[in-house]
């Protein structure tokens, strides 16, 4: 009898272990939130690292994402100095988005007048390496999920900011072809939320402003972009001859917004209207890297948790999600759903943004989150607030701490519980850590890149869904 029961016992033991491992792997994406995380503090500080360019196959284009601190070449005197620069950039980005997404002040900039300098703005947090032209010249490009236009600085350059690589010269590319005024592509620019088109000597001229003082003006053209071993021809790009802004050595911008002129929009059926990215977590090892993947087969993962995307008709480039509430420690907070609602006039709502670092929430929602998190960390020593952070802790001497989970409640009964490392941010070398959320001065909510770190995030723009997981980085 003992021998006959051994196999069933082994089978059920193996099945139990398999289910346990599956639950542990999928824990951040399940519809029931955990109560507490253990945060290992030594792994939260950002460490610079080098990446390879990426790889591609017939049905997949995959690029490594570079954080700005990797390629800027700037040495900060202290972690506090680095943080101050991050928060300065972040505040300007948020102010720019608020102006751009406010129905009351929605307008196109007048490109006939001088635009305020963006040299101090430091636009862009994540970059990719892209080959431009034939033969391809490798260039760093800012990745922006809230922009539609793809553009680079070009010779002859009447006004250009410094960049890491030589400025692209279209005269040296066999695939560069200017776009005429009568082209339907030229007409698409005037349908965007921050771009205008005009005609000069039969050629299509473009002008784009990013609201923070950065802008680019030049000619619109078809060009070949190369990602790893994959060349994509006839991409409409802006060839900027007058550009202002500091893009930390980048040659231009790779717009991934929801409009027809973004790189994803132009790929159309080639990418199936889908892309995904995974922003590597702070403190990851030197060999870790984030990724940006195009192509429906590769970008749409099996096992992802999906939530519906919303479209703001007043700012159609941006990806909004329908957030219903927040949770701390496994308990849903008493925050009204209307706090996150996108109005018919384009006010409020929750936008996904790679260019904002710290997640912003409406005042009432943030206060509820802050108070619940503080109650769950009552045993930890507090510290004075730092800049936009008002919930800080003196954790000198601690190797790890126990903190309550933070969860987002989305439409469709989907709950995303953030990874442990996405909750606290170190603000100095002395052991001060702060809750990495802040209050919004408007009704707009922004899910920033700190809270997105380590989670595979997929945009199925063709079908109107956003996916979380199941993979991590």
Automatic annotation (TrEMBL):
<dbReference type="InterPro" id="IPR033121">
    <property type="entry name" value="PEPTIDASE_A1"/>
</dbReference>
<feature type="active site">
    <location>
        <position position="144"/>
    </location>
</feature>
<comment type="similarity">
    <text>Belongs to the peptidase A1 family.</text>
</comment>
<dbReference type="InterPro" id="IPR032799">
    <property type="entry name" value="TAXi_C"/>
</dbReference>
<keyword id="KW-0378">Hydrolase</keyword>
<keyword id="KW-0064">Aspartyl protease</keyword>
<feature type="active site">
    <location>
        <position position="353"/>
    </location>
</feature>
<keyword id="KW-0238">DNA-binding</keyword>
<dbReference type="InterPro" id="IPR032861">
    <property type="entry name" value="TAXi_N"/>
</dbReference>
<dbReference type="GO" id="GO:0003677">
    <property type="term" value="F:DNA binding"/>
</dbReference>
<dbReference type="InterPro" id="IPR001461">
    <property type="entry name" value="Aspartic_peptidase_A1"/>
</dbReference>
<dbReference type="InterPro" id="IPR033873">
    <property type="entry name" value="CND41-like"/>
</dbReference>
<dbReference type="Pfam" id="PF14541">
    <property type="entry name" value="TAXi_C"/>
</dbReference>
<protein>
    <recommendedName>
        <fullName>Peptidase A1 domain-containing protein</fullName>
    </recommendedName>
</protein>
<dbReference type="GO" id="GO:0004190">
    <property type="term" value="F:aspartic-type endopeptidase activity"/>
</dbReference>
<dbReference type="GO" id="GO:0006508">
    <property type="term" value="P:proteolysis"/>
</dbReference>
<keyword id="KW-0732">Signal</keyword>
<feature type="domain" description="Peptidase A1">
    <location>
        <begin position="126"/>
        <end position="469"/>
    </location>
</feature>
<dbReference type="InterPro" id="IPR021109">
    <property type="entry name" value="Peptidase_aspartic_dom_sf"/>
</dbReference>
<dbReference type="Pfam" id="PF14543">
    <property type="entry name" value="TAXi_N"/>
</dbReference>
<keyword id="KW-0645">Protease</keyword>
